[in-house]
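Whether sequence alone determines local backbone shape is best considered at the level of individual chains. In the encoding step, the backbone of a single protein was reduced to a row of integers, each denoting a local shape. For completeness, the protein is quoted in full, as a sequence line and a line of structure tokens.
***
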Amino acid sequence: MNSKLFVGNLSYSTTEEELRELFGKAGTIRAVTIPMDRTTDRPRGFAFVEMESPAEAQRAITMCNGQMLGGRQINVNEARPPESRGGGFGGGSRDGGSRDGGSRDGGRDFGRGGERRSGGGGRSNRRF
């Protein structure tokens, strides 16, 4: 188990101090992070709490999951690693292929000399 926890369903007014007070009952806290929305500069309604050890993280899940904090019932789970976003432009899927599972060129078959092959086996006169 990881020692980093995801804390969801937080009130926008929840503070780092409140999280430290609640999770401190389960063990030593390494870090508390409350992500902010870039456009509104308000908290996004969740946080990450990193405990000193995986055993303390498990204890925090047991003790804190379902607790009331700021008038809301919070949920606490092991944090998952962030998904790779694969930067850049150009659409397609995250693994570099196209959405339909074909290659980046959309599954088109290009013949010699830059000519595009048509589905009927003959060649079109269209050049790229």
About this structure: The chain has a mean pLDDT of 82.
